[in-house]
Amino acid sequence: MEAVPILMVIFGGIFGGIALITRVDGQSKLRILQEKRAIAELEQAAKQPAPLPAPTPDDPHAAAVLALRLPEPQRSQALELLCLVQDAPKTLDARSAFLIKQTQADYLPQTLRAFLDLTAGARQRLSAQGMDAETLLSEQLDLIGAGVKEALRLDHAAADRMLTQGRFLRERFAASEAGERVALEKT
User: What's the distance, CA 88 to chain centroid?
Assistant: First the structure.
């Protein structure tokens, strides 16, 4: 009888060791499978093209990239505004040039980002206040466009050049005209 418990202990130790080896071996297999899966995911991610980075505020093309993501007719409206800014003469006065530069680099991109970043909850909040996001964007683009057109129309430098030329001509020819009158009076 004493032999049976001894045999059980011996066989239990052997089978327990086998179970322990199987458990350790199973954990190793699990770890290897996890590593293989992680490697496969990394390889898959490497095959996919990386998404384009979001335009930065310093990017001169930020507004153009953002405008392409707008719905129509706001897309056309924003692109028309970009063309107006891009085609602005390089000889603008400092005030107009600053407004054009800020519109391209700051005002327009921020306006477009604000619209594109609207969440469904934000749109619902606007709707609850009786406002439509697309209509608000169109109004904001109209405001920017009117400001740019006004700056281009005013072109303080061109007006200043014209006034300066007029003053020069008045001084130049008024002096010679006065000299001719004096000469005619003497004769």
Answer: 21
CA 5 remoteness from chain centre: 79
| For the chain, domain boundaries | 1-51, 62-154
Neighbours of 102 (CB within 10 A): 12
State how far the Cα of 27 lies from the Cα of 25, in Å rounded to an integer.
5
Phi-psi region for residue 93, left (φ > 0), alpha (ψ -120 to 50) or beta?
A: beta
Is the pTM higher than 0.85? no
The residues, any chain, with a CB within 8 Å of residue 160's CB and separated by 6 or more, are 93
CB 144 within 8 A of CB 111: yes
Q: Mark the ranges of the chain whose per-residue pLDDT is less than 70.
A: 1-26, 45-61, 155-157, 175-187
